[in-house]
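Subject: Protein entry, chain in single-letter code together with its fold tokens

Category: Structural biology, sequence-to-fold work with a learned token vocabulary.

Notation: Tokens come from a learned vocabulary of local backbone shapes, not from coordinates.

Start of record: The labelled sequence and token lines come straight after this line.
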Amino acid sequence: NGTTYLDVQGRSFNGDNARNLLKEQFNLDIPVEKLPNIMFGIPEGKCSYDADGYVKSTTLAEGYTVNYKQYKAFKGGYVLPSDIEIGSTNNKVLIKINSVTALN
């Protein structure tokens, strides 16, 4: 129905937009709508690459920087980012991915 739900330490929040919900409740402004591409290592923006051809860093249109600190081979041989840093002048978020589960 377009509603976003957020459960944090036993408290529930909801709103019409995930990004706005995080801003309102936690003063955290990150590009959540772009997280799927960021977590797969295919971000938008001008990218720099490492020697193996994986994205090393990029700057998104809104001024956010995404730094890929580490990649890891997961079950099935898929190599994906496992340590990602998203930052802006006001925020910094670290994402650590330990496992990946395929959905059928």
Notes: The chain has a mean pLDDT of 89. Residues 27 and 91 are 9 Å apart (CA to CA). The chain has two helices and seven strands.
